[in-house]
Amino acid sequence: MSDPGTTLSKHQVTCGDGLETLLNDPQDPHDPFETTETQLERLLGRALNSFDLPDSTVERLGTALAHSSALHSSHHSASLHRTTRRHTYLLADGSAISLWELTHNAGRDGARQHELYAEESEARLAASRLPSGPRPGRTAEPFDGPGFGEDDDLELLSSLLARPIPAQPRMYVPDDSADHARRVLRRAENADRPGERTARRLRLAFAHHITQAFGRHSAVEGGRDAGFTLYEHQFLLLDGSEASLWEVEHTATPDGRHMCEVYETESAARDAMESRSRVR
Q1: Full-model pTM
Q2: How many separate helices (H) and strands (E) can be counted in the chain?
Q3: Please, which residues bridge with residue 75 across strands?
Q4: Which one has a higher pLDDT value, 19 or 131?
Q5: Average pLDDT taken over every residue of the chain
Q6: pLDDT tens across 105-134, in order?
Q7: Checking DSSP bridges between strand 96-104 and strand 64-76, what pairing results, if any?
């Protein structure tokens, strides 16, 4: 896709009055003449987490005049069907904004589920949390799609993630960073998560950067294989100082579901991962 600030993709463009459609998408069938307003209502209505979108993003989307939708990545295996789509909207002030839609069948009943994210990085994280291994007695089919999220052999992936990840330069992005911090803290399930003092400080955040600091698979209770991933959410504050939240994503839960824990320090986050991996 071209720079969203200048042009929209010709994969599918629908004007607000619903009179122009260049190419309908067979992966997401709907009325080719639906308006941008209707398309937005459909997207927000079916997303399980639409309430978690930043209020500022939803308000800006209210002025959308046209939209473009394109497939960003696709994965199909014996147990998982997953696609990620980018929906870009042309707003009344001439700017553009994107939503990232993750569709998958990783729910309890295997039904199709939809999730929406305002940032590509959040869609990446959500896609990485989905189970990708084959069901017992079945063999995974090969990867079938472009973009991020290619699923290699789990053993090889684990060995790669276990290696230290080279330090990357911090490239802070000013993008509703205070709201991003709020959402990270909101999804934390650990009782010793950062409190109100940290939340108040992060309200001053105006730019942020996300780094994967660690990842591995480890046997836990019952001999199950659980995944552990550590992310650092780095924030640049209005007073020029920096602050970090350390997010642990793991499946060391009784039912194997993904759990999010957030800590103020890297050492506390690593101690938590070590404690979870020692449970047998």
Answers
A1: 0.44
A2: 7, 9
A3: 82
A4: 131
A5: 74
A6: 887 777 889 999 999 888 888 888 887 554
A7: unpaired
* HEC readout, 21-69: ECCCCCCCCCCCCCCHHHHHHHHHHHECCHHHCCHHHHHHHCCEEEEEE
Separation of first and last alpha carbons in the chain: 48
Tokens standing for residue 136: 């017992």
Structure tokens at 196: 């109100």
Q: In what order do the strands lie in the sheet with 242-250?
A: 205-219, 225-237, 242-250, 259-263
Q: How is the beta sheet containing 81-91 ordered, strand by strand?
A: 13-15, 64-76, 81-91, 96-104, 113-117
| Average pLDDT of span 76-98 | 85
Mind giving me the DSSP string for 116-154? EESSHHHHHHHHHHS--SPPTT--PPPP---SS-----H
Whether residue 252 contacts residue 277, with contact meaning beta carbons closer than 8 Å, is answered with yes
Q: Rounded to an integer, what distance in angstroms lies between the CA atom of residue 54 and that of residue 81?
A: 27
**Which of the listed ranges 50-64, 133-147, 221-235 does the model predict with the highest average pLDDT?**
50-64
Looking at residues 256-273, what average pLDDT do you find? 90
Identify whether the C-beta of residue 57 lies closer than 8 Å to the C-beta of residue 97.
yes
Compute φ and ψ for 60, nearest 5 degrees.
-65, -35
CB 214 within 8 A of CB 274: no
Kind of pairing between the strands at 113-117 and 96-104 = antiparallel
Q: At 242, list the tokens.
A: 């920096």
User: Which candidate, 56, 18, 49, 13, places its Cα nearest to that of 260?
Assistant: 49
Query: Cα separations (Å) of 44 from 33, 124, 197, 251?
Result: 18, 19, 33, 28
Percentage helix, strand, coil, to 5, in the chain?
25, 30, 45
